[in-house]
């Protein structure tokens, strides 16, 4: 039984706390958040201890592992503090807001010896993972192109956008990791940012984007993002190979469809948001993390995966601003 502490009692902290509390191989031991009574309230829900002193988590000998859901600028400091204390780490994405922070800590990150996993949970989504497995089996031959569609049901507040690092770091970062999961290392990025939301435009960010990524073999991934989708949380993936195509479609609450004199094949709305859509992915992600910690193996996605995803986010930002492709070769 792994005793796990969660740092950060915001929305993602709630997701991880719930997942840990429900897992047969883990105990939610401690919740830490320096602001108000957020940690106390979340911890009380699951019978855990709480603290407003985040540093005390690293000194707590009863804690085996730490889930880091703190603000992005604190990810590297909290990761390194946990690792130095000998605690395994599951850290939310992105690793940092810019590569300068990564480079400043590169030597320390390279020296980390405890198991560290990054929260690119979509790798563990059963549908996406099944597509990847079928591709590796050669079911559709050699991969030729990949299409990733990721649209949110509603845009976040402009105040959040201002501190998020931008759409490519905050939203597309998951899709960059998914593209690398299928294509491996990327050598070229070409991004097109779009503005339909005036508040987000005034905040200095895009609210929609299309990104093309190419690997050394010439395989191309296309990512389509939008902060707002009237149909709901739109999450799809298509892999086209030399002998066939694999599709992972949206998930709904049921498979019921209605046909009558007004509509045919009318289905329920997409699941409302990531909490519902990726509930299984978070559970499987945690299981992979626990198994790696118990076995003493290196989990993935790794620190290197997180760094590469951020590199792609920075390249996409540059490309969208300049209108030119960015080479990473």
UniProtKB/TrEMBL annotation:
Give the UniProt keywords, A-Z. Oxidoreductase
Q: Per the UniProt record, which EC number(s) apply here?
A: 1.1.1.18
Q: Which residues form the Gfo/Idh/MocA-like oxidoreductase C-terminal domain?
A: 134-328
Gene Ontology MF: a single term? nucleotide binding
Query: Could you confirm whether the keyword Nucleotide-binding appears in this record?
Result: no
Q: Where is the Gfo/Idh/MocA-like oxidoreductase N-terminal domain positioned along the sequence?
A: 2-119
Pfam families associated with the record: GFO_IDH_MocA, GFO_IDH_MocA_C
- The source's superkingdom equals Bacteria
Q: Which NCBIfam families match?
A: myo_inos_iolG
Task: Name the family.
Answer: Belongs to the Gfo/Idh/MocA family.
Protein's name in the database: Inositol 2-dehydrogenase
Report the source organism: Schaalia odontolytica
